[in-house]
Amino acid sequence: MLVLNDDQAMLQDAARGFVTDKAPVAALRRIRDERVAEGFDRDLWRAMAAMGWTGILVPEDEGGLGFGFVGAGILCEEMGRTLTPSPFLSTAMMAATALSRAGSPAQKEHWLPAIVAGDAVIATAVDEGRGHDPAGTAMRAERHGNGFRLTGTKTYVVDGQAADAVLVAARTAGSAGEPGGISLFLVDAKARGLAVERLATLDSRGAAELTFDGVEVTADDVIGAVDDGHGLLEVVLGVGRAGLAAELSGNAQESFTRTMDYLKERKQFGRTIGAFQALQHRAAHLFCEVEIARSAVLAALQALDADAEAAGLAVSVAKAKASSVARLAAQEAVQMHGGIGMTDAIDIGLFMKRMQVASTLYGDADFHADRVALARGF
Amino acid sequence: MDSLDAFRRETRAWLDANCPVEMRTPVTGDDDICWGGRRWVFKSEAQKVWLERMAARGWTVPGWPQAYGGGGLSHEEVTILKEEMRAIGARSPLESFGIWMLGPALLAFGSEAQKQEHLPKIARGEIRWCQGYSEPNAGSDLASLQTRADDGGDHFVVTGSKIWTSYADKADMIFCLVRTDFSAPKHLGISFILFDMTAPGVSTKPILLISGKSPFCETFFDGVKVPKANLVGTLNRGWDIAKYLLTHEREMIGGGGGGLLGGRSPGQVAASEIGTDGQGRLADHFLRADAARAEVDALAFAATMTRYKDEAAAGGKGVGDKSSVLKYYGTELNKRRYELLMRAAGHEGLEWEGARTHDGERPRDWLRTKANSIEGGTSEVMLDIVAKRLLQLPNA
Ligand SMILES: Cc1cc2nc3c(=O)[nH]c(=O)nc-3n(C[C@H](O)[C@H](O)[C@H](O)COP(=O)(O)OP(=O)(O)OC[C@H]3O[C@@H](n4cnc5c(N)ncnc54)[C@H](O)[C@@H]3O)c2cc1C
Ligand SMILES: Cc1cc2nc3c(=O)[nH]c(=O)nc-3n(C[C@H](O)[C@H](O)[C@H](O)COP(=O)(O)OP(=O)(O)OC[C@H]3O[C@@H](n4cnc5c(N)ncnc54)[C@H](O)[C@@H]3O)c2cc1C
């Protein structure tokens, strides 16, 4: 059934109440205006941990809730409505997935309780250039004694500026462009030779550029199989993409709702502007698009719960659709607000900025449409 | 869960044993789809057998109550039946306006006698219905219709004309909107009646479409006598029934595109016709980019059809005004689909007659899809409904 079950609906209500109360858009403005370097509020993150959110994907026998991807997506969607900055995607979704699926007992024991407690932030470092291209990973991991030595640069690493550890994709074999030969490493953020440079991004959350200059890791720091990390990486990225798609759906729903409120309030030519059919039809079209994006997102989250390794197509449909719909929603929101939509005083512009970041990360609409076409045989 | 698994196993076994192999091949022409009715000529023995077997189980209308010829299946069971039929490529045994439109309206508004009389005949494909809504001066503004039904004692006397009546020349019966009160506000003087297309005074005249086919007609009523027992619901309150029926029609039209082309998308058809490069990408890159976006939209839209049906089933109601979302998006998507197919066809899409192209099947289908965003309520009317009813935007 492509509907939320009772537990999921309850989680959604609770999450909406929490973000509205504890993390409204004003909280993002504070992060921005006070130039909070980490890009999120540690107290809020701990409050999320107290709600159990940090453990939503961690299995119950590892101390988490084991609630599943639909639940995690619901949280992303609600945080998307309020533009809540948090390391939820990087840590509670992507890192938790990597660790619980492929972590060694020692890695799990070390990191999973810390994730659940809200004490650890773990970033995933994949991209090295302008576009999202996991198979294009060029960073080298050269064998060195019993371990490896990492050299190269990772860019736009989400939460990299605040991370305690980094899940990094590097090449132990093959060459850039080939899926084979990629291995994943879980590297301490304070490792010698790892330089973290904070990037100020338009959504005020920041990201990091990580430069690895011969960073030494041991065989115990590998996560998953050496040379064969691409499959795991795809699952971890799939989880991130679905989370972003859910967030973008929330982003689009909220800028749409605010625009509808404005159309019912603003008067010009002696009428509320929402009475003009030229705007009504655009609003109605946008509503249809938002509805369709929501369905694609729920289908992707359910597909991840059913079989994360087989969810690639559903996830790409969701990321492609949610990215383009959130873009349309942001554009229409600014346009239909007229001059006021261009100002920093109202929040519409903040939705547009975050939309740009979330729609670009882990593959934009074009990247995923290409994947959908390939998966469908053209 | 277990009982659904059992239902799936039984259904699979039954379909495998009962669906003739000829009925597991893609539909290639109009007459491959059985519409039923007194004058239906089965294209093959297999088509007849398939209809009879499915009707005997109530599976031509699996969700209707068994008392009226349906299968009495739950929403989940209907979904499973459809999935299992799709899995073996089984054709639908019967399509009709009775199934899509009149049946749901009678189930909601009909008297017990009307349900007993009409629903089993729809389920068995014995009676074919047409829809008498639109008139020359009442299209989008349907409620301004002028066909009149005057009181003749125990019957009505119907006079006027309808237009765009699909398959009026092939139908046995019509469900028809008539004005029974000329002094009331336009929505409050309309009644919903049923009558036989062979009744004296009914005549039809086919209209030729741009596709070269004549699937619809002008329909004339000259003093047609209709028993008062054939009034559905309350006199002068037919508009509520009309609108309810339209939500079912719109949901159906919105989902109409997916089943064509043997379930293949334009990108997939184009790949088989034009070919792919070494990495499996469609060789025409401009077409591919548009086809890929259409593919994303089509898959996301299919999920929306499922979600709305599941939500409706969970809430115990129909899809309601959200049928306008499905109608609008699904039909615009289907038009895009055929634009892509025409681009893929290139010169091959220019032939109108000739065996090689099945008499220009592709351009004729392409032209036919242009009606999708008109029939059952235009896209502009759908957007108006979304804006006013779902978004509560003010009236001008
Ligand atoms: C960067 C910037 C610089 C500017 N510089 C100047 C300047 O130098 N001098 C100056 O005088 N002004 C300036 N303006 C103001 C600008 O001209 C107005 O913002 C513009 O005319 C729209 O008016 P509004 O903002 O009140 O929007 P509204 O009129 O409230 O419009 C809101 C929305 O409703 C739509 N709408 C309104 N009426 C209708 C209708 N009848 N049918 C359909 N849709 C309708 C609009 O298209 C818009 O999408 C500037 C604005 C900006 C953003
Ligand atoms: C293939 C086909 C099959 C059909 N089958 C049947 C059938 O079986 N039975 C039946 O009863 N009818 C049938 N119809 C008729 C169909 O329902 C009408 O054509 C449709 O409702 C539009 O009415 P119209 O053609 O009079 O167009 P009009 O209402 O005259 O519309 C002309 C244009 O104006 C636009 N427009 C109208 N009002 C507004 C408004 N308020 N705001 C903005 N734009 C507006 C419309 O969207 C359209 O683009 C069929 C039509 C087709 C094409």
Termini separation of chain A: 29 Å
Q: What is the CA-based Rg of chain A, rounded?
A: 21 Å
Mean pLDDT of chain A: 97
The class by helix and strand makeup of chain B works out as alpha+beta
Helix content of chain A: 40-55%
- Succession of helices and strands of chain A: HHHHHHEEEEEEEEHEEHHHH
Output the strand order for the largest sheet of chain A: 1-4-5-8
Largest sheet of chain B: 4 strands, mixed
Number of helices of chain B: 11
Name the beta content range of chain B: 5-15%
Category by helix and strand content of chain A: alpha+beta
Low-confidence stretches of chain B: none
Oligomerization state: heterodimer
Strand order of the largest sheet of chain B: 1-4-5-8
Unreliable stretches covering 5 or more consecutive residues of chain A = none
What small ligands are held by the chains? flavin-adenine dinucleotide
Summarize this entry quickly.
Chain A is α+β, with helices and mostly antiparallel strands and 378 residues long. Helix content of chain A is 51%, strand content 15%.
Key traits:
A: 378 residues; 4-stranded antiparallel beta sheet; B: 396 residues; 11 helices; 14% strand
Describe the model.
- The complex is a heterodimer of chains A (378) and B (396).
- Chain A is an alpha+beta fold and 378 residues long.
- Chain A contains 11 helices and 10 strands.
- In chain A, strands 1-4-5-8 form a 4-stranded mixed sheet, covered by helices on one side. Chain A has a 4-stranded antiparallel sheet with strand order 2-3-7-6, with no helix packed on it.
- In chain A, a hairpin with a 2-residue loop joins β2 and β3.
- In chain A, α8 runs antiparallel to α9.
- The radius of gyration of chain A is 21 Å and the shape is globular.
- In chain B, α1 packs across α3.
- Chain B is built from 11 helices and 8 strands.
- In chain B, 44% of the residues are buried.
- Chain B starts with a helix and ends in a 6-residue tail after the last helix.
- Chain B is an alpha+beta fold.
- In chain B, the strands form 2 sheets. In chain B, strands 1-4-5-8 form a 4-stranded mixed sheet.
- Classes of the chains: A alpha+beta (378), B alpha+beta (396).
- At the A-B interface, β10, α8, α9 and α11 of A face α7, α8, α9 and α11 of B.
- The structure holds flavin-adenine dinucleotide (2 copies).
